[in-house]
Amino acid sequence: MRRQAGFTIVEVLIVVVIMGVLTALVVPNIRVNTIRVKMTEAILAFAPCRNAVSEIYQGGGDPPADGVWGCEIDQNASQYVDRVSVDPMGKITITLRAALAPQLATLDLTLQPLDNTGAIMGDSGSPVARWRCGSALDQSQVPVQYLPSTCRG
Asked: How many domains does the chain divide into?
């Protein structure tokens, strides 16, 4: 007499439950990581203004009195960034678009130049020592969980 081999219904249900639990744990992380990748692309919008601000401070010059650095974009800067603006001291602010993630639409992300003491740049003409990205101290509104590791304060 031949015996049929196969899985019992209980074994199949156990596998389905395990797969469901793993999916419930992994899918949210995949969504957050997808937003981080898009955010990295949005951060590229900082590059032209970051160079402009660094060059002015590196050359020992004073920031423009009216805050016009020559790299601002009023609207539709990129697929994920609507606007790029720079304040008179060189803080760069990008306003995000809904294409990045609906929950981040119209939020601001900032990049603040700091001197060698860690203070915000002033009129002294000293070079930019480092940049602070995504900090709430600079009115950045994007939650830290969506920021790439290179842009967390």
From this structure: 1
Spatial distance between the Cα atoms of 38 and 96, rounded to a whole number of angstroms: 11
Query: Is residue 1 in some structural domain?
Result: no
67's tokens: 């805050």
Task: Tell me the per-residue pLDDT of 51-63, one tens digit each, with 9 for 90 and over.
Answer: 988 888 888 777 7
> Is there a contact between 83 and 75 (Cβ–Cβ < 8 Å)?
yes
- Domain of residue 68, CATH code: 3.30.700.10
Q: Residue 2 domain-assigned?
A: no
What average pLDDT does the segment 47-72 reach? 82
Question: Is 3 within the bounds of a domain?
Answer: no
Count CA atoms closer than 13 A to 56's CA, side-chain side.
22
The C-alpha atoms of residue 62 and residue 10 are separated, in whole angstroms, by 74
pLDDT at 34 over 80: yes
- Cβ–Cβ under 8 Å, residues 93 and 110: yes
Whether residue 60 contacts residue 125, with contact meaning beta carbons closer than 8 Å, is answered with yes
Place of tokens 């469901």: 20
Name the residue with tokens 């990008």: 94
| Mean pLDDT confidence for 96-108 | 91
